[in-house]
Write a structure and sequence with these properties.
Layout: H1 3-26, H2 29-56
């Protein structure tokens, strides 16, 4: 996996975790849901990159 893409995907996952936690803390279900969705997107992109890398080797 390219280092730049890996960093972006990890950042997206981390950003989603912060949104989810903030949403829980303030009772904002919409923000919490957006955070979970962002985490899932980051995780999916990471998995996709890992699959591509596995096929290259």
């Amino acid at each position: 996996m390219g280092a730049g893409k890996k960093i972006k995907n990890v950042a997206k996952t981390s950003k989603g975790k912060v949104k989810e936690t903030t949403g829980k803390a303030v009772g904002n279900e919409s923000l919490e849901a957006k955070g979970r969705a962002e985490q899932a997107l980051g995780d999916a992109k990471q998995a996709g990159q890992k699959a591509k890398d596995a096929l290259k080797h």
